[in-house]
Structure prediction request, 203 residues.
Amino acid sequence: MFVVGLTGGIGTGKSTFAALLLERGAQVIDADALGRDALRPGAPAWHSVVDQFGQEILVHPSMEIDRKRLADIVFNNREALKALNAIVHPMIFKAIADELDRMRSTDEVVVLDAALIVETALADICDAVIVMDSTDEARIRRLKRDREMSFANIRAVMTSQLDPQVLLRRADIAVSNDGTPEDLAQEADRVWARLIEMKDARA
Ligand code: ADP
Prediction:
């Protein structure tokens, strides 16, 4: 197993790039999806988050956590974000560790798609780190268009994340995503070839 951390700020194209690497043969672990699972009604993190933030973050009658409402709270309040991370991160790390354990003895390239790799101990378990980058303008335009996020919410998330220049200093491979989807697919070809080289050099 060769573990690749794929990181970058919101809207830089991590999930899009992870999908391109999946097409080229990678296994992908999606930390956002694991986070969503951890917050399902009845899951341990669901109980802790409801205790912390109150019943008003629940959608009735499904009792699901309203992720948009939760995001509005935490991305405008540093302490609330810390409290949420303290609950959810250990669950996500455990789920990632379980997925990695499942693939440990294989020859797979495993791509870990996660915003928080450089900020957390996840960087230590990666054999290589890819950092995605894109201009703020392109990120904001795509997120408004595809995720229907408001400018204020996008800005609030961006401000809560590490400075792109700091992230890029930790990159083994940097990918700039300022062109078309076709340009990004070409980058994926280049990066996939490089990852195979790195995996083979290590073997
Ligand atoms: P992240 O996972 O880093 O938050 P995404 O991969 O979800 O970012 O990308 C944000 C949005 O921008 C998605 O809707 C995606 O389809 C779109 N997108 C990503 N790269 C490009 C690109 N090069 N051209 C046009 N749209 C893009």
About this structure: Residues 8, 10-16, 142-143, 146, 177, 179-181, 184 surround adenosine-5'-diphosphate (CB under 6 Å). The chain is about 55% helix and 15% strand. The chain has a mean pLDDT of 95. The first helix runs from residue 14 to 23.
